[in-house]
Amino acid sequence: MKNFRNYEDVHLTFRKGLVIFLGENAQGKTNLLESIFVLAMTRSHRTSQEQELIGWNQESAYIKGELQKKHANLPLEILLTKKGRKTKVNHIEQKKLSSYIGQMNVILFAPEDLSLVKGSPQLRRRFLDMEIGQINPIYLYDLVQYQKILKQRNHYLKQLAEKKQTDELYLDILTEQLVEFGSKIFIARKHFVERLQHWANQLHSQISQGKEQLQLEYVASIPLVDQMDLGAIQQQFTEILAKNREKERFRQMTTVGPHRDDLFFLINGKNVQTFGSQGQQRTTALSVRLAEIDLIYEETGEYPILLLDDVMSELDDSRQLHLLKTIEGKVQTFLTTTTLEHLKHKMTLEPEIYYVQQGFIKGEKTE
């Protein structure tokens, strides 16, 4: 890393298993995790302002990593400037986001992820988009197109309502495009949630010692037909938009589509968002995040990298044990913590420990 957050120039080489960044709060532990996340996803999980990632009084930030895959090593690079970002895979610049994302799969679990269950629908849609995008580059393309058309359509609805435009034909064209990309997003999300539930329910059942069954329910803003046929969903979406046209003109916005979807979590048939205890909500969030490990492995043939940002202190002993048992010897894991007390007796493998203090890392291996 060069000039990333509070790090000027850092070279680190990690071992395969558990890597711990240990230090007091506000020393730069999360910045290290964030750099790995940015290298994988091209953007931060903490801010939408890329300038915040660039070191104080610097013009750019640079992250380079070498990923050890099954068949070969893969160098990845990202340069962040005040004008934008440049990404490279194997030293070749990538113009499309969908060509870069998915090369390195990461799963991040931070205290704010507990709000995945009880937070807003927008958080859950973002979760779906980021996770599906990692394993399905076409989904990212469809999503970008959908969001662009949605913005144009909403703007045109406003112009029609204000009598600045009268051409209904252009609205028809935008609607047709919205249906084309939106229907693909519906199908990809539904398919992903069904597969995620398979793994999440198994994990949740183990953590709750067989007392609870976890169900994930994708709540689309249109009724999805069972056979998930693209043509049938496009027809359904088109009919609902036609029925809602007057309402949309009055409200000056598109009232149905993937931008209005949600994801429900049910334990033994009851909605966890509404009726679940805090413990159940945390177990659900943990089960869903850990379920992604197996789902990504099934999809890509490689395990993702797991980033755990100060979550151990948020979980009780049994959940901590389960988390460590799930990842041990299987997934390269980066964990930030202020103390090792709650971990010492739970780990069977020796972790690699880096001590972080005011942006300096002790115990690092220099290339």
Number of strands: 15
Order of helices and strands: EEEHEEEEHEHHHHEHHEEHHEHEEE
Radius of gyration: 22 Å
Could you say which overall geometry the principal axes of the C-alpha atoms support?
Answer: globular
Uncertain segments: none
Q: Helix- and strand-based class?
A: alpha/beta
Fraction of residues in β-strands: 15-25%
Number of contiguous helices: 11
> Main sheet?
6 strands, mixed
State the end-to-end distance. Answer: 13 Å
Q: Strands across the major sheet, in which order?
A: 8-12-13-3-14-15
Helix content: 40-55%
- The chain-level mean pLDDT equals 90
Primary descriptors:
367 residues; alpha/beta; globular
Describe this protein's structure.
With 367 residues, the protein is an alpha/beta fold. Helix content is 44%, strand content 20%. The longest helix is centred in the middle third of the chain and has 40 residues. The two termini are 13 Å apart. One of its GO terms (biological process) is double-strand break repair.
Write the layout of secondary structure elements.
Elements: E1 2-4, E2 7-9, E3 18-22, H1 29-41, E4 60-68, E5 73-81, E6 84-89, E7 92-94, H2 97-100, E8 106-109, H3 115-118, H4 121-135, H5 137-161, H6 168-207, E9 214-219, H7 230-243, H8 245-251, E10 262-267, E11 270-271, H9 272-275, H10 278-300, E12 305-309, H11 317-327, E13 333-337, E14 352-357, E15 360-362
Parallel strand pairs: 3-13, 3-14, 8-12, 12-13
Antiparallel strand pairs: 1-2, 4-5, 5-6, 6-7, 9-10, 10-11, 14-15
Helix pairs in contact: 4-5, 5-6, 5-8, 6-7, 6-10
GO cellular component, one term: cytoplasm
GO molecular function, one term: single-stranded DNA binding
InterPro entries: DNA-binding_RecF, DNA-binding_RecF_CS, P-loop_NTPase, RecF/RecN/SMC_N, RecF_2
